[in-house]
Amino acid sequence: MKGWIVRELGKPNDVLKLETNLKEPKMDNNEVLIKVEAAALNFFEILLCQGKYQIKPSLPFTIGAEVSGTVIKTNNNSKFEVGERVLALPELPKGGLVERVSVKEESVHPIPDSMPWEEAASMFITYHTSYYALKKRANIKKGEVLLVHAGAGGVGSAAIQLGKASGAYVIATAGGEGKVKICKELGADIAINYLQEDFVKIVNRVTDGKGADVVYDPVGGQVFERSRKCIAFNGRILVIGFASDNIPSIPLNHILVKNYSVVGVHWGYYANVSSHAVEKDHEELMKLYGEGKIKPLIYKNYEFTDVTNALQLLAERKTWGKLVVKL
Questions:
Q1: Confidence (pLDDT) at 53
Q2: Quick one: angle between helices 154-165 and 117-131, nearest 10?
Q3: Could you tell me if 159 and 288 are in contact, meaning their C-beta atoms sit under 8 angstroms apart?
Q4: Does 83 score more than 80 pLDDT?
């Protein structure tokens, strides 16, 4: 069996090695064995290789947090059947950039026959994060104004689509005309090139000074600071992450005076404590997919041997959507 292994910490180009003589994975009682067809890459996997991520698995380990594939072996009383098409979130140190991986059943979910492998591998983290954020943390309502930052990114593109599916008026920001075009194609009512335009002025203008009811912020830093200047009364700023590498401070007096909420969104924590709720969320997302209301945004499909080059491009932040490795 072949797969990508990290045996020492450092830059992915230096420490990720494609090995061809790996042992077959062992299955625990609550796991299924999956033949991996595709795996999506995430920025945090670069940090994992470097030892800079909040989770630090023991060496050696395999990256690959999102995969799609076919169930090839189950234990007794499994809810899955051999041959079933699934997506899965392998648990470190047994990541999914391998030909076969064993995954806990609670982290495996069925997919329809109509869903391509690359879309299935790209869907789970981004769409579940955005669904949880918009539906359960912001309680977004039809007719509300949603401001999505980094709209051409993985979670941002999912937020645009889910916002429109909820009946919201969606304003998206992105860096560059190419990414602005992508946001419009995803369904954004207005897309703003933040490199050339002031999103605060535009949001306040198109809302007649009211501001955005919900702000979806995976960037942090100055984006968060500026978003406070265009948040509506009773608005909600969703803190998704800090892609800017700058964690802002929050002035409580401003929150008090403008009467808005700053809402944390840690989907991983939610998934750990509410696995049954995640299953129901997945059913709803599969329904939306079947209705054509959501579709993962994929930058490019890569060959299995090209993982390090794909991660380098991801590290340079020159991509949009999701990068997928096909096995």
A1: 85
A2: 70
A3: no
A4: yes
Closest CA to 309 of 46, 75, 8: 46
Please compute, for residue 10, the number of CA atoms within 13 A of its CA located in the half-sphere on the CB side: 9
Evaluate whether residue 284 is within a structural domain.
no
Closest CA to 119 of 277, 283, 290: 290
Contact 271, 136 (CB under 8 A): no
CA atoms within 13 A on the CB side of 306: 13
Q: Which domain holds residue 241?
A: 125-268
Q: Is the pTM of this model over 0.90?
A: yes
Give the number of other Cβ atoms within 10 Å of residue 45's Cβ.
Answer: 25
Does one domain contain both 165 and 259? yes
Instruction: Give the Cα separation of 110 and 230 in Å (integer).
Output: 40
Query: Nearest CA to 260 among 300, 187, 211, 223?
Result: 211
* Secondary structure class of 252 (helix, strand, coil): helix
Q: Quick: pLDDT tens for 188-199.
A: 999 999 999 999
